[in-house]
Amino acid sequence: MAIKVIICLVLGYIFGCFQTGYFYGKLFKGIDVRNYGSGNAGTTNTLRTLGKPAGYIVFLGDALKAVFAVWIVRYLLFPGLGDVTKILETVTALGVVIGHNYPFYMHFKGGKGIAATFGCFLGLLPHWIPLCVLAGIFIFFSCVVKINPNYYRTVATYILAAICTVWLEPNRYIVFGFLLIAASVLAKLFMSAEEKEHFEVKLAWKH
Questions:
Q1: Shortest CA distance to 63 belongs to which of 52, 75, 71, 74?
Q2: What are the respective helix, strand and coil percentages of the chain, to the nearest 5?
């Protein structure tokens, strides 16, 4: 079992290391997005630096790499092992987020892992609770009770989503995986050197 866990963690990390934002910026704009904005290579900084189309492409790329990594474990490497397969899928998901946040060939300076998290939970379907909880809370804090800037919105979303997943998700392996992923994302946020704007909470329809 230990060998399987190592294989899946390394596989996830390798997939996670593919930085869509970095390669998009280099190939199509001739820039390193990490030299702008927050200094991250993820969706949010790409969107701010290169615009919405680029941001959407980067989100899709970073999400799909997580889906593919989890599905390789589920359908090719270790299919039909019941709870063991589920454990290995969550380990792979964790590896993707770590690889996305800390790619070795970019001096461990990648993204924040948000799009990769969504991709991981897409890959873990039909366990839909973590995906719906994370997406629902993100939408709520963006469109109903709006938390600004994005840094604080993400922190609040992951903390509340982790609590809700512990409460709602019956599969303990999925819960454990979510907690580890949330811890990885929050650690990256807390260690970020980006300048944080003034914290603000307001109803979205109030100006």
A1: 71
A2: 70, 5, 25
